[in-house]
Every structure is written in C-alpha cells, then in structure tokens.
C-alpha cells in the first residue's frame, strides 16, 4: 500500500468548507479521518460517519440555497486551523422539526479543526444559537410572546417534561427573558405542544421548566435526545451552575 503523505492542514480545511459550499455530504466525510468527529451547539455531542452525513443533509434540505463565505483558514500551531465563516440561507424546507418559514438567515461563526495524516480528526463549530432562533422567528410571533396565550387543558394521558435547573440568582432575570422571548416561541411551533411554565427561586437560583405535550410521542420527539432540546439547552449553558436534570411524567388524574 502506498504511503499517504501528511495533508496540508490549511488545504484540508479548504476542502472541508468547499464540500459544505457544494452541498456534498460525501465530500465532507471524505475530509474526515477515520472516527473523526464534528460538533456544534445544536448537535447532541460529537457526531461522525452517517450521523454527520444525516446532519449535513438535513441542513441542506432545510436551507436549499445554503451558502458559506469564509476568511483564512488560519494555521494555529502545527495541526490546528481556525476558520471564521458566515452562513446564509433561506428556510424553505423542514429543519429540526420546524416547518418552513421562508425567512432569510445570516449566521456568523468559526470552526476549530484539528488535522491528522488521515484527515480531520475533529471539527468544532462555534456560533450563537440565539441568532438562529431569532432569525427563524417571525416578528409577529416574537411580539406575541408578551401576551399570555390561553392554555389548553391537558387531556389524561398527556406528558409533562420537567427540567430542573440551577443558575446564579443574579442571572434569573436573563434566564426568564430567554425562556419567554426565545424558548417559548420555538416550542409553540413543535407538534403536540400544549403549554409551558417557568418557576424559579430568586434566592437560590433553582428553577423548574414545565412543558406539557399532548402525547408520549410528542414528548419523545422533543426529548433531551433530540436536536431540538439539545439546541434549546445549549442557549442556557453559560448560565448553568450544574447540569440540568430532565424528567417526564404522564398525566393520570385531575382534581
């Protein structure tokens, strides 16, 4: 077997971003080393192989005109490359369980890539998920968050998701605004959503988010294992003192 020369990290990173620009999941995977991983604030952790192929394909389906411009890449050390980028696209397909909105998205971020002789060992994308959420939220929906919607009475058999959280007491107001202005508008677009409530202890920073779903299937589709909830929780990561704890309960009786 012929010896494979060590690839130039900068050239390899250019091949990687060009594969994204060409909407080619196969070419993206071809730049990765065996077992190489990708992660960003919307993934449930590092992903690779077919999971990465599916992630890229879902993004291309949700934003058929997706495009990237970039600066660099910049070599940092012997094997590490940094690449600032700007993503643009129009949300005309289903994405993360969200129906098409037709809204235009501009998102800035940067990738940190680690190269190896076999390809990219890891790619970590950094960007603000709040920018993405706000871009996909129509102004009328954002404005409607200031008015309390009429809650629907949950039927027997509905499921409630409780997320136990702990923040610094001084961050309670920021967390409340984030939950009200960003989390709830997106939650209301999910199939089976019924109602949401947020409880906090202002003295300790302990909190409890209660969201009710019409059926077990709806709750499962938006569970902590879904890209939807992973993306939501990522928006609160800078405020968490400890990892959130998620529980699910079935409504079996009403007083």
Describe this protein's structure.
This protein is α+β, with helices and mostly antiparallel strands and 255 residues long. It has 8 helices and 10 strands. Strands 1, 2, 3, 4, 5 and 6 form a 6-stranded mixed beta sheet that branches. It has a 4-stranded antiparallel beta sheet with strand order 8-9-7-10. It starts with 8 loop residues before the first helix and ends in a 5-residue tail after the last strand.
Summarize the structure.
The chain contains eight helices and ten strands. The chain has 255 residues and is an alpha+beta fold. The strands form two sheets. Strands 1, 2, 3, 4, 5 and 6 form a six-stranded mixed β-sheet that branches. Strands 8-9-7-10 form a four-stranded antiparallel β-sheet.
Chart the SSEs and their pairings:
Elements: H1 9-21, H2 25-30, E1 32-39, H3 49-62, E2 67-70, E3 74-76, E4 80-90, E5 104-116, E6 119-127, H4 129-136, H5 139-144, E7 159-166, H6 172-187, E8 193-200, E9 206-213, H7 216-221, H8 227-234, E10 245-250
Parallel strand pairs: 1-6
Antiparallel strand pairs: 2-4, 3-4, 4-5, 5-6, 7-9, 7-10, 8-9
Please describe the structure with a list of short key phrases separated by commas or semicolons.
about 260 residues, alpha+beta, six-stranded mixed sheet, four-stranded antiparallel sheet, 8 helices
> Which stretches are low in confidence, meaning pLDDT under 50 for 5 or more residues running?
142-148
Give helix and strand order, one letter per element, not per position: HHEHEEEEEHHEHEEHHE
Q: What is the multimeric organization of the chains shown?
A: single chain
Helix content: 25-40%
């Amino acid at each position: 077997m012929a010896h494979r020369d060590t690839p130039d990290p900068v050239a390899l990173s250019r091949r990687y971003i060009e594969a994204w620009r060409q909407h080619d999941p196969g070419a993206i995977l071809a730049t990765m080393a065996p077992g190489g991983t990708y992660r960003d604030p919307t993934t449930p952790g590092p992903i690779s192989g077919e999971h990465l192929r599916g992630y890229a394909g879902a993004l291309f389906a949700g934003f058929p005109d997706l495009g990237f411009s970039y600066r660099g890449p910049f070599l940092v050390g012997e094997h590490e490359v940094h690449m600032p980028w700007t993503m643009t696209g129009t949300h005309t397909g289903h994405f993360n369980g969200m129906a098409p909105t037709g809204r235009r998205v501009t998102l800035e971020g940067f990738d940190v890539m680690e190269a190896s002789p076999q390809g990219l060992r890891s790619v970590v994308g950094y960007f603000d998920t709040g920018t993405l959420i706000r871009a996909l939220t129509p102004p009328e929906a954002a404005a409607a968050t200031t008015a309390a919607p009429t809650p629907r009475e949950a039927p027997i058999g509905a499921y409630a998701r409780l997320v136990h959280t702990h923040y610094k007491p001084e961050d309670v107001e920021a967390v409340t605004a984030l939950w009200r202005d960003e989390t709830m508008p997106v939650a209301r677009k999910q199939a089976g959503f019924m109602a949401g409530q947020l409880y906090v202890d202002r003295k300790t920073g302990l909190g409890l988010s209660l969201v009710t779903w019409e059926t077990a299937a709806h709750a499962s589709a938006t569970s902590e294992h879904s890209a939807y909830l992973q993306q939501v929780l990522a928006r609160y990561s800078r405020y968490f003192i400890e990892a959130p704890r998620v529980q699910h309960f079935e409504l079996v009786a009403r007083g």
